[in-house]
Give the backbone structure.
Amino acid sequence: MELTEAMRTTAAVRTFTDADVPDDVLTRILDNARFAPSGGNRQPWRVVVVKDEALRLALRDHYAAGWREYMAHVVAGLVPFAPSNDGRWSEPAVDLEKARATPSPNEFGDHLNEVPVMLVLLAHLPSLAVTDNGLDRQSIVGGGSVYPFSHNLLLAARQEGLGGVMTTVICRQEPAVKHLLGVPIEFAVAGLVALGHPTHQVTRLRRRPVSEFATIDRFGGPEFGDLP
Ligand SMILES: Cc1cc2nc3c(=O)[nH]c(=O)nc-3n(C[C@H](O)[C@H](O)[C@H](O)COP(=O)(O)O)c2cc1C
């Protein structure tokens, strides 16, 4: 597939057919995704390919707990787990314990155990050169050494005629997920990636135009990038 087309049409796919994804196809996807960039080329990602049904069911339940917390924010009109305007973390304005006990149906999450491919994405924390550490605001740089890899997974899957989605609500349950999968302390749970054969292919993504996010010379300066 042509690169520009792949970039412009690789949507989040959450519904899959029953078709299996053979291990050799998944191996090829991982083998292509591994060329992602990372700080210092330290390639901090690790992947657990989850095949065991009991583990999958447990992860589905952990996902559901994270989803409930997420949706409680949405219902309250909040951006879930967003830092405040000053960039700092403050305690969530919703009762997370209550949220976890309140069912929130989600077609994808409620059947997460059934996805053809389930990958738990981990990050080796001591490998991350987090250059915005200690800036007294939400740090953002570290994830940049892992998420290009996860997007490469989606692009590589697309090349194989597959689709998928990178998800993070399960990170809310990191201690339980690490315990379940035997993950050592020095790793973080960066996400869960689902892959499979899409039931349908979305081809038009809704994104803001360049002129809405690029400016010249200063923040808020003249818009850059008006296409003729
Ligand atoms: C950092 C990150 C976290 C995400 N977490 C979730 C998630 O927990 N659950 C989910 O269903 N989708 C998740 N997504 C997928 C986004 O919802 C999706 O990329 C976005 O809505 C754009 O979808 P589209 O490409 O189909 O337009 C996540 C994506 C990113 C990049």
